[in-house]
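== Protein entry: sequence and backbone fold ==
=== Local backbone shapes as whole numbers ===
==== Amino acids and backbone structure tokens ====
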Amino acid sequence: MSLKNAKAKGSRNERRSAALFEALGYLCTKAGGSLGIFDIIAINSQETVAIQCKSNAWPGSVEMEVLKMFRKHPNMRILVHRWRDRQRMPDVREV
């Protein structure tokens, strides 16, 4: 898969994750270029959810450690969404 196709696939999966949270009433923002730790931040009146999206594989051990070390506030959750090819919903892990 070319880098262009991989980037398009990642962006598509990020939009799918955001759409799931928007359907639940969250306001979502997608990090431009996904250069930060999280791809999506979803906010509602009770909590903030930071989401890292992956295609086909879970994050590696170093990336998972970075997610675990992030200092979150009490009403915050950190999730990893893994979108496998031809899968309708993501596999989800809470960090």
